[in-house]
């Protein structure tokens, strides 16, 4: 997290919470989890999360004994605030956050790289529902467009199809693997 982001939000703790939660809107985090992940005291996190819920940036819900926080999709400034945060984080941190905790991904990488003139391709190998894949693509698009890069194209392969195409030397798969690659989940390698 940069000093500019911390200054903008007037609280380092609040900025750290937003920097962790906004790129991961699909996940909810309890105060104990946030404390462990961010290295901050629970009492400080509780105070800032309460403020962020009160102003509408975050929503909260009980899960057992813990209260989990996540971005509130109804907050009118959520999209530009998320874009600001992921721009500050950079693609190397924002892209893995977009895929964090998504069940069914064996491997995901960006083929074509960041800063290229042509649209990069988000390659996902796994077993995902269409809605989950669409949401992942939207989060990856936010991470890239916040930096002025074009949104990625999407190439999805079930594991068996990926393996078969790699083994057959499929031209599309060869091109994806030959392009500069940025790992998101797993490695960029062929199998």
Automatic annotation (TrEMBL):
This is HTH arsR-type domain-containing protein. It comes from the Bacteria.
């Amino acid at each position: 997290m940069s000093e500019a982001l911390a200054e903008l939000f007037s609280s380092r703790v609040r900025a750290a919470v937003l920097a962790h939660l906004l790129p991961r809107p699909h996940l909810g985090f309890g105060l104990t989890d946030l404390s462990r992940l961010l290295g901050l005291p629970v009492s400080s996190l509780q105070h800032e999360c309460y403020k962020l819920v009160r102003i509408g940036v975050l929503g909260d819900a009980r899960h057992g004994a813990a209260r989990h926080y996540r971005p509130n999709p109804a907050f009118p400034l959520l999209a530009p605030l998320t874009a600001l945060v992921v721009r500050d984080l950079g693609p190397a941190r924002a892209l893995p956050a977009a895929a964090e905790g998504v069940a069914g991904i064996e491997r995901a990488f960006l083929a074509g790289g960041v800063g290229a003139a042509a649209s990069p391709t988000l390659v996902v190998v796994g077993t995902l529902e269409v809605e989950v894949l669409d949401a992942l693509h939207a989060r990856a698009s936010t991470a890239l467009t916040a930096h002025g890069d074009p949104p990625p194209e999407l190439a999805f392969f079930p594991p068996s199809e990926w393996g078969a195409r790699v083994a057959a030397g499929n031209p599309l798969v060869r091109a994806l693997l030959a392009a500069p690659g940025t790992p998101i989940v797993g490695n960029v390698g062929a199998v």
